[in-house]
Amino acid sequence: MLIPISNIARDYAWGSETLIAELQGREPSGAPEAEIWFGDHPGSPSRVDDGTGRPLNLALSEAGIPPLPYLLKILAAATSLSIQAHPSREQAAVGFAREEAAGIPRDAAERLYRDENHKPEIIVALSESFRALVGLRPVADTQRLLASLGAGGGVGALSAALTPTDAEDEPAALRRVIGWALSGEAADVVTDLSAALERAAGDAADASDFAAERRVLREIAAAFPDDAGLIVATLMNLVELRRGEALFAPAGVLHAYQDGLGVELMAASDNVLRGGLTPKHVDVPELLQVVSTASGPAPIVEPVEVAPGVFGYDVGVPDFRLARVETTFEAVTEIALAGPAVVLATGGDIVVEADGERVELVPGTAAVVSAASVAIGGAGDAFVAQPGGE
Predict the structure, then answer these.
(1) 156 is a domain residue
(2) How confident is the model at residue 201 (pLDDT cuts 50, 70, 90)?
(3) Domain shared by 115 and 6, yes or no
(4) Which residues does the annotated region (Disordered) include (predicted)?
(5) How many CB atoms lie within 10 A of CB 139?
(6) Which site in 105, 139, 320, 364 is 20 to 30 Å from 71, CA atoms measured?
């Protein structure tokens, strides 16, 4: 099976008006274009471009192929997404059963667990720069950042609150501060932190170790006034990926993409626990049950060239595996498949062949392959998503 698929861009408010259009070589629509989903997820299944217009989930079912265990996306952010974390598979199963028993509709705004699956995810930068907040910075480093803003008022109170008590370790202190921030008790701190960030704009400290963090936090404060998520964002690592670099968000890790264009691959789930920078429902007690508050460096994934022109992003989850393919007219790249795959073109002109069938792809278009292997030729760049390994 080799069939081209397509989908429409989802117009979330944080989306870019230009990045996806530029990738696809068309005029912008004039509306935010945040994500294009390539997969069979019922929330927005791709359409089969074989003249029938069938949704991909129906086409796969009719072919006797089980649902894909992953969802591949193009993501284009102009402003911060919500701060969020995803549950483990065990946490998702418990939460889903609890909300089912409570009779909460699966499409209700307050619903947290819409399925029983976990949702680890990886994103690879397509733009020259892709910024994200991910994971929690060591407390001492956050206190140095806060000191660069001045020690008084709410900023000083936040710095003091981060110091673990005698009965705490650092993760416990971070969990306590996140709960305090999101409980509504820290409104004055949010106000003082926003004002301190604005006052510090352009001062000498903006050439310091935390210049980039201060700029991002100012942007967040301007876009989300009075949102307690600003405090949570202040605790997080800032990452700036270059084209081809990736980061991984496993279960429990807080993350919030800031801006840029990327290819995102995740387990097929819609379970999200939010931690601010959003008008959507934030369940603080449940977030604190799920979130990992271990501090440390951001979970960056370095691509490994596993074959000429083939770069793998190994994160060791059974749901998915991702590879980037750089093709030239001189050679055809063949990739063995462990199950149904999605090939997404992101540059140049790509030719995909499997079991005697052939599909030509241009940037921003994709195809589904169900075969033992897939051959990719032409000249350009493509991503191949497929099931992972145990």
Answers:
(1) yes
(2) confident
(3) yes
(4) 31-53
(5) 19
(6) 105
Where in the sequence is the domain holding 358, given as residue range(s)?
Answer: 313-386
* Residue 346 contacts residue 364 (beta carbons within 8 Å): yes
Tokens of 342: 């999605």
Give the number of other Cβ atoms within 10 Å of residue 211's Cβ. 12
pLDDT score of 213 more than 80: yes
Apex 96 CA angle, 95 and 98, nearest 5: 65
274 is catalytic: yes
Q: What is the mean pLDDT of residues 136-155?
A: 92
**Tally of domains within the chain:** 3
Task: Give me the residue label for tokens 């530029």.
Answer: 22
Apex 383 CA angle, 21 and 128, nearest 5 = 55
Single-letter residue type at 70? Y
According to the model, what pLDDT value does residue 205 have? 55
- For residues 121 and 155, membership in a common domain is answered with no
Q: How far is CA 352 from the centre of its chain?
A: 27
Same domain, 288 and 165: no
Q: What confidence tens digit (pLDDT) does each residue in 252-294 have?
A: 999 999 999 999 999 999 999 999 999 999 999 999 999 999 9
Residues 75 and 41 in one domain: yes
Structure tokens at 349: 């002109």
